Amino acid sequence: MANNKIKNILISQPEPPNLENSQYKYIIDKYNVKFTFNKFFDVVSISNQEFRKERIKLLDYTAVIMTSTLAVDNYFHFAGVERVKVPDTMKFFCITETVANYLQNYIQYRKRKIFPGKITFDELTEVMLKHSNETFLFPCAEDARPENFKKLDSLGINYTKIVMYRSKPKDVKKEIDIKKFDMVVLFSPIGVKSFLMNFPNTTSDDIVFGAFGEATHSALKKAKIKIAIPAPTTKAPSMVMAIEHYLASNVVEEEKQAKPTTTTAKKTVSKKSTTTVKKTTATTKKATTTTKKATSSTTTKTTVSKAKPKTTSTTSTKTKTTTKKTTTSSKTKKA
């Protein structure tokens, strides 16, 4: 499995215009990690000829479905190509608040004609159903999710799909040393395709994968790559929040793993102390035994010493007897 220690994170998107004021900066400061930003693919508009072949007239529609900032850019790009001025009455249905705010780059933001969803496309369709009389134009990528179109069909929403841009994988092998990274975060199926093309031998055993969006999840699952950090979710509606939650759980896990080590050390010290006490006790017992032996030996010597005078007394008695005998013998001779 990939290393739980996360220090270097690769984000497959361009760096935010102001990194110091972004949510990434909070994670950098709190968890001491480093982010590297590198887009894995290029997005290009379809040619003007391709657009005209579709015979789409932008002003034939009263509302536009925007699922990404790329859709916003390309819609207004082709409005410029066709020299069409988008009227103030045009309504925009945006998948998130972020996409809705991005519209301010092209038009004056008015809440009466901009309707953001929350997170998912299903939630956006709930908003669209309240405006079922509108005629919707759906600008999208060449590899757009077919599930979105099926959803609109099932709800009977009147819409027209128009492919306005496509993605091309980039060769980033020379720019990126993938072995230096502990985590990579992908945001689209084309990003997954580009990653697999550039780093075909990298798996979830080598690196932690984060993925944003159901289509990205699906592309990674097809490649048999395990997703450790999925987004959006209820708890983590953005990818940045999902990364933060993952890093926080890692910190908790590390703290849990550190506690048993301390306990083990205490047990080891305790065992050593017990062994030392046992050894000391054994030494004391040996010393006691030695003392007892020494005492016993001393007692024995004392007893022997006391017994010796008796031998002297006996000798004295024998001497006296011999003297008596000698005296008697002497007296006999004299007589």
What's this, in brief?
This protein has helices at residues 23-31, 48-53, 69-81, 97-102, 121-129, 146-155, 189-198, 214-222, 239-334, and strands at 8-11, 34-37, 41-45, 63-66, 91-94, 114-116, 136-141, 159-169, 183-186, 208-212, 229-231.
Overall CATH class: Alpha Beta
Q: Main sheet, how many strands, which sense, barrel?
A: 6 strands, mixed
By secondary-structure content and strand pairing, the structural class works out as alpha/beta
What is the end-to-end distance? 130 Å
Poorly predicted ranges: 294-335
H-E order? EHEEHEHEHEHEHEEHEHEH
Annotation field: number of helices: 9
Q: Radius of gyration, Cα only, in angstroms?
A: 47 Å
What CATH calls the topology is: Rossmann fold
How many E-type strands?
11
What is the number of domains?
A: 1
General shape: globular
Mean pLDDT over the full residue set: 81
Helix content: 40-55%
| Approximate strand percentage | 15-25%
CATH architecture title: 3-Layer(aba) Sandwich
Strand order of the largest sheet: 3-8-7-4-5-6
What does it look like?
The strands form two sheets. The chain has a six-stranded mixed sheet. A five-stranded parallel sheet has the order 2-1-9-10-11, with helices on both faces. It starts with 7 loop residues before the first strand and ends with a helix. The protein has a single domain, classed as Rossmann fold (3-Layer(aba) Sandwich), CATH 3.40.50. The protein is globular, with a radius of gyration of 47 Å. Strand 5, helix 4 and strand 6 form a beta-alpha-beta unit. The relative contact order is 0.11. Helix 1 packs parallel to helix 9, helix 5 runs parallel beside helix 6 and helix 7 packs parallel to helix 8. The C terminus is likely disordered. It contains nine helices and eleven strands. Helices cover 50% and strands 16% of the residues. The chain has 335 residues and is α/β, with parallel strands linked by helices.
